[in-house]
Amino acid sequence: MTQSARRQPHGHGRLLSRLEIIRRWNELEGAAARTQRPRGQAKKQLLAELESRGISLSLSTLYNWRRAFLADGVKGLADHRARKGRQPPDKRFMRAVQREYELPEMLSMEAAHMMARREARKRGWRICTLRESCQYIRRKVLPAMRRGSGAV
């Protein structure tokens, strides 16, 4: 039975295995260049090695990892997907973001988030990320504002 690379657990172990795979690919390509083997032999050999270990990887995933590694180093190999079990956004904080966003001064999303953060610190609320605030505004507030203004 093969184990997909995506189903490996989050965390340091996953990052290390991605790094090991990229290093092994570079190693095999260096050896292929020295022995003048045909191009593409290294990636086929790497995929065969991984398959024998029970890890199925697509070629596109391998290229994506390599591109991320070349662009951002080890940091690029980190898993940036949201983790399951994350706490839902604090409703009080989101209402504060909404209040600030709906002011007549028409603050930017970043400014509304910053103002809500100040209030949240004073009151001891959990502070959500700017991304969570933007998602809340896009999904909940903007559609209601459009319905209220008669826009389609």
Summarize the structure.
The chain is an all-alpha fold and 152 residues long. It has helices at residues 12-35, 41-52, 59-72, 91-101, 109-123, 130-149; strands spanning 3-4, 55-56. It has a two-stranded parallel ribbon with strand order 1-2.
Describe this structure in words.
The termini are far apart. This protein has a two-stranded parallel ribbon with strand order 1-2. The chain has helices spanning 12-35, 41-52, 59-72, 91-101, 109-123, 130-149; strands spanning 3-4, 55-56. It is elongated and about 70 Å long. 63% of the residues lie in helices and 3% in strands. The chain has 6 helices and 2 strands. It has 152 residues and is mostly helical. Helix 1 packs across helix 2 (41-52), helix 4 (91-101) packs across helix 5 and helix 4 packs across helix 6 (130-149).
Strand order of the largest sheet: 1-2
How far from one another are the termini? 51 Å
What is the number of helices?
A: 6
Q: How would the global form be characterised?
A: elongated
Helix content: 55-70%
Low-confidence segments: 1-13
Summarize the main sheet.
2 strands, parallel
Protein structure class: mainly alpha
Radius of gyration, whole Å: 23 Å
**Content of β-strand:** under 5%
* Number of E strands: 2
Mean pLDDT value? 80
| Order of helical and strand elements | EHHEHHHH
